[in-house]
Specification:
Elements (H helix, E strand, L loop, with lengths): L6 E7 L5 H11 L4 E4 L5 H12 L5 H22 L2 E5 L7 H13 L3 E4 L9 H6 L2 E3 L2 H13 L3
Parallel strand pairs: 1-2, 1-3, 3-4, 4-5
Helix pairs in contact: 1-6, 2-3, 3-4
């Protein structure tokens, strides 16, 4: 058992479902002590942070650039602090940022667990190829984390 470590887990990816809460609840139910890190999940806040902090832009491209840069500061810091990166891909929106996070974590040598529905297996084959596990449910993620920390099923 690895009870003496503090595990930090970065939860990257889609922000429109409750998958983060489900992982947290499943981990709490078996008393896992995990520090969860996350990007800003308030969509309006995440999209608008650049112009809100740095000022308005005439072109949407520059508005997006400002916001992406500020959000990347947070993401990079948290990915570098993470022991494991969970990357969730939903079916409704393209999560290019999640794919970028997976690549960054992989380049750092941080273990990745991919989380998505089976219908996305083909489009995510490169991300899944870099992942050490590919899960379909948040509960499977919690079970993986419990196994990693406690060595039990």
């Amino acid at each position: 058992m690895i009870h003496n470590i503090d595990l930090s887990v970065y939860l990257s990816g889609e922000i429109h479902t409750d998958w983060r809460a489900r992982i947290g609840e499943a981990c709490s139910a078996v008393d896992l002590e995990i520090r969860f890190l996350s990007p800003v999940t308030d969509h309006a806040c995440s999209d608008g942070c650049g112009v809100s902090i740095l000022g308005a832009e005439v072109k949407k491209f520059w508005e997006d650039q400002k916001g992406a840069g500020i959000n990347a500061i947070r993401s990079q810091i948290m990915i570098e602090q993470a022991d494991v990166v969970i990357v969730r891909f939903g079916d409704k929106y393209r999560q290019w940022n999640a794919a970028f996070d997976a690549g960054y974590a992989h380049a750092l040598g941080t273990p990745i667990i991919s989380l998505h529905d089976p219908e996305l297996n083909h489009p995510l084959k490169e991300v899944d190829g870099a992942a050490l596990a590919v899960a379909e449910t948040p509960e499977q993620i919690a079970a993986i984390l419990q196994y990693v920390l406690e060595g039990k099923l």
